Structures are given as C-alpha cells and as structure tokens.
Amino acid sequence: MKKQDRIYTLDQMLKAAKYPISIDSIKERLECSTATAYRMIADLRDGYGAPIETDDATNGIYYASKGVFELPGLRLQSDEIEALLMASHLLEDIQKGLLKEPLSRLLDNISSLLKEHGITDKRNIQIIYALFRKADKKVFSSVFTALQEGKRLELEYEARSTNQTSTRVISPLKLTNYKNAWYLDSWCHLRQGIRSFALEQIKSCQQLDEKCKTIGKELLKEHFSGSYGIFSGEATQTARLKISPKVSKWVAKEQWHSDQKMSFLNDGSIFLEVPFGHDTELVMDILRYGESITVLSPESLKNKILSTIDAMQKNYQN
User: Fold this and answer.
1) Which of these, 36, 190, 196, 206, is most buried using a 10 Å CB contact count?
2) From CA 69, how far away is CA 63, in angstroms rounded?
3) Alpha carbon of 140 to those of 18, 143, 177, 181: distances in Å?
C-alpha cells in the first residue's frame, strides 16, 4: 500500500471508529510495520492538521472532534490514480479533433487531481493504438449529439462485406470503442432490428427531428451479451477449442466471452468453450494463434477455418 493510500485509509478508520484504535489494528489495516504506523499518524496529524489524540488508558488514537476535519482535495487510492492516468490519455486521443472543446475542461480537472497526488509528468505512460481506424470528425460529432439528445439519424453507410452503400434511418443506442475502432449500436428502421455500424464506414449523416425508438431493456441485454465480440445478437452455437500448452498460459488470462467455459487438461493444454452467432471475429481470433489452437467443433467453424487457410495458401503459390 502506498503512502497516500495509507493516509486516506487511516483517516477513514478514525472517522468510523467508536473507540480509540490500537497500533496493532492500524498496522494490520495499513499492512505496515510499527514504525511506519507511527509515521503515518504523525503525517496525518502534523502534515494535514488532523485532530488526533491519544487515549491514556489504552494508548489508542482517536479524532478529538469528528465531522470537522477533512483531508484537503479529493484523496484517491493508487488504482484510482492509475485509472485517471489511463483516462487522461484516452481523452487526449479523442480530443484530437473530435470533441476538443467539451473535453478541455475535463482534462484540466484530471491534470489538477493528478498534480495533487504528486504526478506532474505523464510521459512515462504510453498507450499505443495498433491498427486504429479513425472516424470522420463531423460524423463522430453528429453521432455523439444525436445519442445525447435521443434523436434519429439518417446516414449513408458503406458495408465492408459488399462495398455497397445504403441509406439507413437509425435510432442510436450506444457508442462503443472496440479494438481501436468506434461502433454505433442502433435500431435500424430499415432492417427492423439492432445493428452495429462502424463509424469510419459512415459516409455522411444528419440528425432528424424524430425521437429515437424505445428499445426494451431485456432485448438490449439479450442482444449485447449473447454472442461473440462486436457481432452481438443471439448465440446460436458454441465453439469448442483446444489450446496447446505453448500458448495456454497466455490464453488463460484472456476473456474471450463473459459466458466462456475454460478447463485445464493434464497435458497443460486448455479446453475452451465460447458461444457465438456470427463467426467472423471468432475466426480472426483463432487464426492469430496459428497452429496453437485447434477447433474441435462445430463442423461449420472448422470448415470456415480450413477454407480461410486454403485461401491464404493460394496467395503464396506460384
């Protein structure tokens, strides 16, 4: 536990305590030695002006006047500070032309909070965006505004699979950043169902006066949590995969799906079950591990992997 976390925790202990707190209790809670516990007490009392008193009978400590003393500023735990650093970098990336004005004050506030905790240089933290697909600034702004105001959008959308452009009227539901790309989950009034639109494939869009269609919570939950990856919807099949010992320790740390089932075999390999409906993204994730993953079932997924590998081989044949 870091020093600032210990100061914050000690303050909370003293505020919540009905009786004087012993040094042993402080050591256990702060995960520190006796010397460090006394040092934290001194820092809180002398450095922050906390009204700490010592009970003569028990040698425990307590606040002389509760409800009066407050630590200056917002005190954050170390993991909260790390989260703020990450958020700052992500917001700065979005700010590059997309939402510059609305985010400027928020970024300034985050920087001030970090400085209060002794972090003045963020350059030792780096976020690298691989294969980043950037949305048009005007499209992102229009989508964001319509989403917040609950208004429908009319857009020209070019499908990647067919390269065909169609006109859609949609009710935006949720904006998601997934694997370095932005997606707009919406109710498509043309298809009469929930669809996901990649923002970089939206050629143009305009906000309409009509309010968005209201979608029931159960339908949304079923759609967004059922299947694999960004291709949401009902999971109609289960992929059964065997991961070799060569990469099993890495795959064991990955979350492929919220409802996945993983078991370790005697030879060090992993048996992984993943629900899916649309296999496009699942095929890509399987292929990134090459020969280290074997599809056991279903046959349709095995055949899709085989046909993809066959097509890849043809690219290298003379």
Assistant:
1) 196
2) 9
3) 53, 5, 12, 12
Helices (H), ranges, the chain: 3-16, 23-30, 34-42, 78-95, 100-116, 137-149, 217-226, 245-251, 280-287, 299-314
3-class state of residue 261 by DSSP: strand
Query: Which sequence spans correspond to the domains of the chain?
Result: 3-63, 78-116, 137-215, 237-314
For the chain, the 3-state helix, strand and coil shares in percent, each to the nearest 5, are 40, 25, 35
Cα 136 off chain centre by: 23
Residues (pLDDT < 50) of the chain are: 95
Residue 27 confidence (pLDDT): 93
pLDDT of residue 95: 47
What class, spelled out in words, does domain 3-63 have in CATH?
A: mainly alpha
- Selection from 15, 125, 28 nearest residue 61 by Cα: 15
Please report the pLDDT score of residue 234 as a whole number.
72
Q: What is the pLDDT of residues 144-153, one digit of tens each?
A: 889 889 999 9
- Reading the block at residue 151, the tokens are 């208004």
**Which pLDDT score is estimated for 218?**
75
Long-range contacts of 36-44 (CB under 8 A, 24+ apart): 36/6, 40/3, 40/6, 40/7, 40/10, 41/10, 43/3, 43/7, 44/7, 44/10, 44/11
**What is the CATH T-level fold of the domain 137-215, as seen in this structure?**
SH3 type barrels. (2.30.30)
Token pair 């010992």 is at which residue? 245
Token duo for residue 90: 């992500």
Longest pairwise C-alpha distance within the chain: 91
DSSP string, 12-42: HHHHH-SSPBPHHHHHHHHT--HHHHHHHHH
| Contact between 7 and 26 (Cβ < 8 Å) | no
